[in-house]
């Protein structure tokens, strides 16, 4: 595991997508989804910042993989 950018960079470039609930969907994931093959972090939209914060705190507290942001 490393917390530095690779010498040749990332391919493809890292990206962030926001997940919207489809009109006909009953439920939607409240936790982020990471796709390491395409360097994409998918974040679900929440109705309030409090909901977002609680779900992110839960995810990072219960996820065995460490995430480095910086």
UniProtKB/TrEMBL annotation:
Superkingdom of the source species: Eukaryota
Keyword Transferase assigned: yes
HECT domain: residues covered: 1-68
Keywords from the named record: Transferase, Ubl conjugation pathway
Gene Ontology MF annotations: ubiquitin-protein transferase activity
Keyword Ribonucleoprotein carried by entry: no
Record's protein name: HECT domain-containing protein
């Amino acid at each position: 595991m490393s917390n530095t950018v690779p010498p040749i960079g990332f391919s493809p470039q890292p990206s962030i997508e926001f997940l919207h609930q489809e009109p006909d969907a009953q439920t939607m994931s409240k936790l982020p989804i990471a796709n390491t093959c395409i360097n994409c972090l998918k974040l679900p939209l929440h109705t309030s910042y409090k909901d977002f914060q609680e779900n992110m705190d839960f995810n990072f507290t219960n996820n065995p993989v460490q995430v480095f942001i910086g």
